[in-house]
Amino acid sequence: MHKDIVEVVKNDPNYQELVTKRSSFAVTLSIIMLVVYFGFILMIAYFPEVLGTPLSEGSVTTVGIPVGMGVIFFAFILTGIYTKRANGEFDDLNNKIKEKVKGM
Q1: Global pTM?
Q2: Which helix (H) or strand (E) is 31 found in, with range?
Q3: Cβ distance 55 to 62 under 8 Å?
Q4: Does residue 50 contact residue 63 with C-beta atoms inside 8 Å?
């Protein structure tokens, strides 16, 4: 019985759509985050004077601090985007697959 359910799920067009959409979306968001992160690291490596510039006259806080915080904040934003889509579109497809299996 277990192998039958696995085959039904694997052959379900909703499952195939879910896997394709979720994988491509996750890869896209991962690439975006890697570009932002490595852009920050490359900026540290090749343009340290830009990130080392004080925010204001006599300030000990440099431009690099808010930019680094921005990278972290950007990661939270991407996580929120993924979660919103996962709780909407991906869950709908998942529920359709579960209903089909329950009907067996």
Answers
A1: 0.82
A2: helix 13-46
A3: yes
A4: yes
